[in-house]
Amino acid sequence: MSTNVEPSSTRDAPSGFAGGPGSGAAAAAGAAGDRLVAVASGRDVPSELHPEVREETPVLEIDRFNLWYGAKQALHGITMPIPNNKVTALIGPSGCGKSTLLRSVNRLNDLVQSVRITGDMRLNGDSIYDPRMDVIELRKRMGMVFQKPNPFPMSIYENVVYALRIDGETNRAVLDEVCELSLRGAALWDEVKDRLHDSALGLSGGQQQRLCIARAIAAEPEVLLLDEPCSALDPIATGKVEDLIQELRGRYSVLIVTHNMQQASRTSDYTAFMYLGRLIEYGPTTGIFTKPILRETEAYVTGRFG
Amino acid sequence: MSSEHPRPRRRSAHASLTAHGEPWVWLTGGALALSIAMITGLLLFIAARGAATFWPAPLELVEAAAGRRALGEVSAREAARGDAGGRRLLRIANFELTGNHFEWFDDGAISATTRPPWATAVERLEGGRFHGFPVRLLHGTEVVAEGPEATWAAFEREHGPVRRRWRETVRIDKHDRGRLQRELRAARLAVVQAGLDADDDAGRTPAVVAAEAAERETAGRVEAAVALLDERTAALRGQNAGWGLEMETAEGGRKVIPLEAIVRAWQPNRLSFTGKLGVYGSRWGEFLADDPREANSAGGVFPAIWGTVAMTLIMALLVAPFGVLAALYLREYAARGPVTTAVRIAINNLAGVPSIVYGAFGLGFFCYGLGAGIDELFFRASLVADKQPTFGTGGLLWASLTLALLTLPVVIVATEEALSAVPNSMREGSYACGAGKWQTIRRIVLPRALPGIMTGLILAMARGAGEVAPLMLVGVKKLAVDLPIDGTFPFVHPEREFMHLAYLIYDVGFQSPNSQAAQPMVFTITFLLVTIIVLLNVAAIWLRSRLQRRYVAQQF
């Protein structure tokens, strides 16, 4: 029902990129581009999952998930478990569907009128796409941080406790405690503790993004969804956010979309490589980056295309 | 990369005027300057003419051909043209003696012009102005003072108390007597209502008997109170009676003007600048705070100011929720499709409907439709007894509703624009936190859109405050005795008709019997109306900038 969709998600719809990376991949990787060429021409290829991912307890299970924007299919049969209390990164060239997949987890794609879904996802056993599932309750169990920081036009305090307020929490003591914990967790407390009631719009870009992270973790989500959180930030702010993700690892399950492979290798425990709406390979980060099963993955992570 | 045929070196951009864009800068700047000049010119013109009305102009004693003498203010001049010589328009006043308020005098026929120091202009309660020279101050048959100086000193001493006593009688008439009349009427209507409530064949039920007894008791009480008031007013009038100022006109005739009938008097040729400023201030004070006299061409416009402000505020209070809620539904909840598009087109076309059509609709639907229904249900007694509708005729409520309808499209369009301008990233952020649609609208979207909504309201108020045509049909009167919001319970009387400055401009300028005298008044009323609208807009703009700073600014 909304008019404009996030730019990142329209970018992920496989529109003009079918020819580009495909042909570039074929040209640059030579024989290694077999699978990718197959994918580009529309054939289904099986995903390669490393054995380690199957051994982990999953917080989120994606099960044969397909998504269409109108007539164009954006996601093809994605099946992957997201491990609990670990950081999982989704990488891939532009237009491969990573942001679309991320937004499907908390059903933000429901807001786009032309979207059609088959398949399912399960959050700690609860089916996400069950028609009886209350979308609002579902979204309260997850937190999301977007590419461009989007603090609300309120004070910093109100931004952080927003999720609790809409749940009906009015106890000032509870709100204060949650605010401090979340801001500490987002490594922002020391910088803003004296101006909690100033407008959030007055913070710098990096601080705004950390505020959005604080807002996302305030409700103790089961899964934290980060959609390219550093792409709009300068290197120093990026570094701070990456340190933050390191700290969150172990306490939260994080699913992060990034087009920056170095970031993926630095911050994540598991990495999934996607291409044109399909999951190509998925495994522990060290495995993906040093000993990938597929040549196509190796071609991508070593920078030969993408 | 060298080439065998190097291209000729291009001229630098400085040379090309159109590339620089200078003509465009001049064109756009010129258009803006012209617009500002026109607006400022109009406002300055209104302000200059409007503010000058109350300045005491000098009185000139003119001796024309055939021994004709006239004492008056020069209000217009015409230069010599062709064969006709120049002439001047003199406000000679003394309507009951000369038959004219104003008269043209040929410059050539005037033999002498002087400004005698004791020439006095007198503003009267009825009959217009009087110009003359003070001769004597009389009390009954007794001559209290004689000669201009002594008379004037005595006048200044006695006039104040006379005016105070006169104002007291007016107050008694308006408030005290009015209150008693209302009580009597209410008691009478209660009897009629009791009669209507009873069954037809039940005859005089106990309720009717009780109501009749109450009416008799009230009538008795009112009669006694009125007798007391009569005594009081008689006493006051008695004290005022007999005081008179005898004036000599330029022609030599004499007239005694009762002191009670004099609003103010001054000698413009004698007054110092501070004195003139005093007269100016006092006339402005009367204009803003007093009731009108002389068929609206003199006196004050206080009821009209009150009516204009009350109506504009009520109109804004009515249009804001309707417009915002309608726009919210259209933008946030309605599914995109042909129906929504059709509704939007219809709303935009509403803005083009002539305002008199809204007046006709308001009269038909609100007054004769809804109003008649309300009267049947709640105010039947008044209908049956006096044949006087309460809500079934024009009034403040219907006028405000009609103008709210008129300005609704403006508010809806502006609100929709403001809602579209809220970035979608904020909405998604709110949904991602687990907020529902209405929570997102209430907490995020509406505050962010408030400055734009205020813009719509400002435009709506500016448009509504100046509309005359629909008001003429649904509730504005030439002269309204009561204010629509006053001190009597329930304080707001939405069924009363009211006065409005815009209508007053039309009425004073084109319908008054003394149009020459009314002309400066028209400018002054226009000046006042523009000032009020500017003040309302300034208040709204200040509010909008506060909201803007709070919810929108400081974005990187």
Give the tags.
heterodimer, A: 306 residues, Rossmann fold, 2 domains, four-stranded antiparallel sheet, 23% strand, disordered N terminus, B: 556 residues, alpha+beta, MetI-like fold, 3 domains, six-stranded antiparallel sheet, 16 helices, 12% strand, flat
What do you see in this structure?
The complex is a heterodimer of chains A (306) and B (556). Chain A has 15 helices and 11 strands. Chain A is of the alpha/beta class and 306 residues long. Chain A folds into 2 domains: 13-141 and 221-301, Rossmann fold (3-Layer(aba) Sandwich), CATH 3.40.50.300; 152-219, no CATH class. A 7-stranded mixed β-sheet of chain A has the order 1-11-10-4-9-8-7, sandwiched between helices. In chain A, helix 2 runs antiparallel to helix 3. Mean pLDDT of chain A is 85; it is low at 1-31. The model of chain B has no long low-confidence stretch (mean pLDDT 86). Chain B has helices at residues 17-20, 22-52, 95-98, 148-197, 206-240, 273-289, 302-333, 338-350, 355-378, 380-386, 396-420, 424-432, 437-465, 469-474, 501-510, 515-551, and strands at 60-63, 69-78, 87-91, 102-106, 112-114, 120-124, 129-139, 142-146, 243-248, 254-258, 262-266, 292-293, 298-299. The longest helix of chain B has 50 residues, at 148-197. Helices cover 60% and strands 12% of the residues of chain B. Chain B has 556 residues and is an alpha+beta fold. In chain B, strands 6, 7, 8, 9, 10 and 11 form a 6-stranded antiparallel β-sheet that branches. A 5-stranded antiparallel β-sheet of chain B has the order 4-3-2-1-5, with no helix packed on it. A two-stranded antiparallel sheet of chain B has the order 12-13. The interface between A and B is medium-sized, with 39 and 29 residues.
